[in-house]
Amino acid sequence: MLSSGALAATWSTTDLKSGAALPSGTTTFNTVTVTWQVGNYLSDGLQIYGLLCIPTSLPGPYPIAILNHGLVQPAVGFPPKYPGIESMGWTGCTEMAGNGWLTAITTYRGEFIDQLPAPFANFRGTSDGLLELCLGEVDDALNLLSAVTAMPTANASHVLMWGHSHGACITERAVEKGAAAQIAVSLDGPTDFTTWSGNNKLLAPTTADQDARSSAWVGNNPTALGNVRFLRVQAEGDATVTPDQACELASKLPASVNYHLYSGRTPPGVYYGAPKECSAFPIPWVNSPPGKFGYPLPDEIAGGTWSSPTLLMYSGLDHQLILGKAWPEFASFVNTVAQSGGWHASVPSEYIPFY
Fold first, then answer.
1. N or C: which end of the chain has fewer CB within 10 A?
2. Tens of pLDDT along 182-208?
């Protein structure tokens, strides 16, 4: 069940408070004309800003990509407001659209959008509310998806939802709450606030508060992640969101197929034993035979098939490096599904920063 605040949002390019027209424009990527627009919608009664990018020179309806970004350093002031969509978000949105996706990004509550191209360089739209961390922001993502799938140019049966860090737990919780996505990919997000060392006790002081934010908590139905094509990525060297968080979630998923991938990829397909950080969790690791050399991942084999759900644990790396290092597997996982289903969109082989 979706929460009461995540049922039927409407996207508007007119500011819901001031009545002013919001920024919009066109650009070109991959010879595709991309129409972009800042919009806003209501989520739990809050005004939330977002960015929409549409490949208007391609035939629709278009598959949808919902990009749930992570959390960055807040702007100076109190209460703190966080950058949600800035120049890299705009570039990522338009470049994904140039690869065929109707792409949408939300600012979430307590965040702002700015750094748009000329003549909108001085524009800033700040969403209502305050940071809740993997709680109300889930409704913000669900309402964005609701607003986008209602558009006549959107293909509601072809939906990718992606997230990193804060966006990863939002993505996982959105699927658990009923997000109509067919593919979900999350990177290095917290899954259990009762065990996560980075838990902000001011935002989640009680066990109930922590459980509500935790995708691995049984009361949040983590098995729902097995109903979509789900890829979880984790950097073993991440000190912000430690790898046990991914291990715990994987142990709750049905029929998980889990790989442990050497980060250097030299030679390709090098594996070793399951990471010590996962020793407390019953995970059926595969492709990790005794010795150093294992089997290649599907993206290293022509026509390779990905299992779902899959956990990829990269040795080393950190909370940010994982984004670029895991891109080939992210692209391969999504494109395998998209191509077989005739989605007419793809994730490019070159890394695109989304924020």
1. N
2. 999 999 999 999 999 988 888 999 999
What does the alpha-carbon distance between residue 102 and residue 205 come to, in Å, rounded to a whole number?
38
Q: Give the right CATH number for 24-340 from 3.30.70.890, 3.40.50.300, 3.40.50.1820, 3.40.50.150.
A: 3.40.50.1820
Quick: pLDDT tens for 238-291: 999 999 999 999 999 876 666 666 555 555 555 556 777 888 988 877 654 444
Find residue 68's DSSP bridge partners: 163
CA distance 69 to 140: 12
* Phi-psi region at 100: left, alpha or beta (left = phi > 0; alpha = psi -120 to 50): left
Cβ pair 327, 65 in contact under 8 A: no
Where would I find the H helices in 159-202? 166-176
Helix axes 136-149, 166-176, angle to 10 degrees: 70
Domain ranges of the chain: 24-340
